[in-house]
Write a structure and sequence with these properties.
Keywords: Cell cycle, Cell division, Cell inner membrane, Cell membrane, Membrane, Transmembrane, Transmembrane helix. Helices cover 73% and strands 8% of the residues. The protein contains 10 helices and 4 strands. A 4-stranded antiparallel beta sheet has the order 2-3-1-4.
Length: 301
């Protein structure tokens, strides 16, 4: 086992010596990659932190089914039971607001009290408020509304389609923007590591040629460069996590007043350790891949 690890220990030692010989260049590469990684990391942390806040807000879309004026309240209650029974998987709550309850609520508002006082009767219908749940609400909500409009005794169905479309548009935008940002950062990391390893390989071309003349294998010569790319990206990922953690202090301070205006507590925090570990591993593998690609194209062993 020790013999199998010997080449890796040697390659790691060579990599660390090369980094020590060019500390400022190595530090600059790490900082450039770390700053590029910190941006999607902060965006991901923000999206993950928003999930529990979204659950606190009353954001479930609703459909309101209005019965015809003069229809018995028993029919509205029967419709509500039918919706609960037949659409159990698509609704989270169904409640009936009788015409008497609606009128009483309007009378409590001073703006409507005087107008309602001169009316000879109650002009309001019974209403069934249905709270939806699940995914793809922008598509399913109009379908449900069209189905319920055809029921006997239904006058109209009010669909909160604008809310649904805005919410799902925002979710799609966030996911798409994060994906594009991650792709741009990945290309930036590849380019930075590719160029760094290329310059290292060109500056040591004579040393590499001499090593090959004495019998060094391709793997033996390439291995230090792979460690250089992987180690640079691993350190950069760690710096990006630390920089993101520091940036969350002023960001959370700025967001505090905004969150209070919505009656919720919101603060950005780093993703869980398992997520961060996966982030570091992916970035490290990306650096190793870029280094191998660069050294293969540059030296043509």
């Amino acid at each position: 086992m020790s013999l199998s690890l010997q080449p890796h220990r040697y390659a790691l030692g060579v990599t660390l010596r090369r980094i020590a010989l060019q500390p400022f260049s190595s530090l600059a590469n790490v900082m450039v990659i770390a700053l590029a990684l910190a941006i999607p990391l902060l965006v991901s942390a923000t999206l993950l932190s928003l999930q529990p806040v979204a659950r606190q807000l009353s954001t479930d879309p609703e459909l309101t089914v209005f019965t015809r004026v003069g229809t018995s309240t028993d029919i509205a209650r029967s419709m509500a039971q039918r919706i609960e029974r037949e659409y159990r998987s698509e609704v989270s709550n169904v409640r009936v607001i009788t015409r008497e309850e609606a009128l009483a609520a309007l009378k409590r508002n001073p703006s409507y009290a005087d107008v309602l006082a001169v009316l000879p009767g109650n002009p309001l219908p019974d209403a069934i408020v249905v709270t939806l749940r699940g995914a793809d609400l922008a598509r399913r909500s109009p379908e449900l509304a069209d189905t319920w409009r055809k029921w006997e005794g239904v006058d109209m169905v009010q669909l909160d389609s604008a809310w649904v479309q805005r919410m799902e548009a925002l979710l799609r935008f966030g996911n798409t923007a994060l994906g594009l940002l991650a792709a741009v950062v990945a290309v930036s990391v590849l380019a930075a590591v590719f160029n760094t390893v290329r310059m290292q390989a060109l500056s040591q071309r004579e040393e590499i040629t001499a090593a090959r003349l004495v019998g060094a294998t391709e793997s033996f010569v390439r291995r230090p460069f792979l460690y250089l790319g992987a180690l640079t990206c691993a350190v950069a990922a760690g710096v990006a996590i630390a920089a993101s953690a520091l940036a969350m202090g002023p960001l959370n301070g700025a967001l505090a007043d905004l969150a209070k205006s919505y009656g919720v507590e919101f603060f950005i925090q780093l993703p869980p350790p398992s997520w961060l570990l996966g982030f570091v591993m992916v970035v490290t593998l990306l650096g190793a891949f870029s280094a191998r690609w660069s050294v293969t194209r540059t030296t043509r062993f």
